[in-house]
Structure of MYC binding protein:
Amino acid sequence: MAHYRGSESKREQFRRYLEKAGVLDSLTNVLVALYEETEKPTNALDFVKQHLGVAGPESGETETLRQEVADLRGKCEKLTEENKELRSRLLQYEPTATEGGPE
């Protein structure tokens, strides 16, 4: 009987761990969403994976994409500054409408 109580205690600890980590809520939400689907998907496991985010990109791929985004943001900032500089230089050579230049 002591063995049964020991394993029950471990089960209860594990259940509390899953509850604290939010796993039970996530699984419950996905299963409820699957239950409420009017047209059940042909592959329920794919449905669960998709709604849990398992089918997302790998961590290495994510890091590569983050680096690419950072690089592109830097490039965008550089091009924006260059655009501002070129516009200000262009305004020096364009006649304004009050100077009577060609329209």
The radius of gyration is 30 Å. The helical segments are 2-21, 23-36, 44-52, 59-93. Residues 1-56 form one domain. The chain has a mean pLDDT of 84.
